[in-house]
């Protein structure tokens, strides 16, 4: 009950943010960031109509997957991904948001080729240049898109970023704006294999700001499921 009401409220906030900047709310996908929530709670979010579920950890994803948590919604991977775990995800998830190096992309290519499929991905950009964050440097993007062009089993649908944690969402507006610029600049170049139609940015604390700066996917956890209990 609570989760479905939260989903409804988040969707309203998405629609309001879209209206504020003259965008069509149907261009913006709501991805439920469901880490640390049980399969049952994830089901509630799916039934309440989120557009996709996003998980951070491979092990947790596989457990909840086997429990049927995601049935009826596309499943995305949004967390840091180690190369040796790629094989568990390819073909199971419809989108990997968090490709942070060319060597990870090559591993996805290899695993997708084995299964004779094309895996959709986003490239994660370390937009604030934080040492503690994963993601590639923005300046490397053209080179990586060029190197990715001959790969036949991955398709780059766009970009993703996780800007710094902030108390005021306006603090992240410059990072969201930079992401949008990067997205637009590289979309114009038309590399093979890259479509540049998804821009994944914005979380519970700042998704409205991200939408007004052009996000097409927001990843929302706390505003849907409540605060995560880390047991500390
Ligand atoms: C947890 C998480 C989110 C959602 O965070 P909230 O602040 O709870 O909305 C979004 N993106 C990623 C990559 C996450 O790990």
Explain the overall architecture:
By secondary structure, this protein is α/β, with parallel strands linked by helices. The protein has one domain (2-225): Alpha-Beta Barrel (TIM Barrel). It contains 9 helices and 8 strands. The protein has helices at residues 2-20, 39-47, 58-66, 86-89, 102-114, 141-148, 173-187, 207-212, 222-225; strands spanning 29-33, 52-55, 75-77, 95-99, 119-125, 154-161, 194-200, 217-220. Strand 3 (75-77), helix 4 (86-89) and strand 4 form a beta-alpha-beta unit. It is globular. The mean pLDDT is 95. Pyridoxal-5'-phosphate is lined by residues 33, 35, 56, 78-79, 162, 203-205, 219-223.
- CATH C-level class is Alpha Beta
CATH third-tier fold name: TIM Barrel
Poorly predicted spans: none
Give a short account of the largest sheet.
8 strands, parallel
**How does the helix and strand content classify structurally?**
alpha/beta
Q: Would you count the extended β strands for me?
A: 8
| SSE order | HEHEHEHEHEHEHEHEH
How much is the average pLDDT?
95
């Amino acid at each position: 009950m609570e989760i479905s009401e939260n989903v409804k409220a988040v969707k309203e906030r998405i629609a309001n943010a879209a209206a504020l900047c003259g965008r069509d709310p149907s261009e913006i996908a709501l991805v439920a960031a469901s880490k640390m929530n049980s399969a049952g709670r994830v089901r509630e979010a799916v039934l309440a109509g989120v557009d996709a579920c996003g998980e951070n950890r491979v092990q947790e994803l596989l457990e909840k997957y086997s429990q049927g948590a995601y049935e009826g919604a596309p499943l995305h991977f949004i967390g840091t991904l180690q190369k040796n775990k790629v094989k568990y995800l390819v073909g199971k998830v419809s989108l990997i948001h968090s490709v942070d190096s060319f060597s990870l992309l090559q591993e996805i290519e290899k695993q997708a080729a084995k299964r004779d499929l094309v895996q959709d991905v986003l490239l994660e950009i370390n937009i604030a240049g934080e040492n503690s964050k994963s993601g590639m440097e923005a300046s490397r993007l053209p080179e990586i898109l060029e190197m990715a062009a001959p790969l036949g089993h991955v398709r780059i649908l766009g970009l993703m970023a996780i800007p710094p944690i902030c108390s005021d969402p306006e603090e992240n507006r410059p990072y969201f704006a930079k992401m949008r610029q990067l997205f637009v600049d590289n979309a114009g170049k038309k590399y093979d294999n890259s479509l540049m139609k998804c821009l994944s940015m914005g979380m519970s604390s700042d998704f409205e700001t991200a939408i007004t700066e052009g996000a097409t996917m927001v990843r929302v956890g706390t505003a849907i499921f409540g605060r995560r209990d880390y047991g500390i």
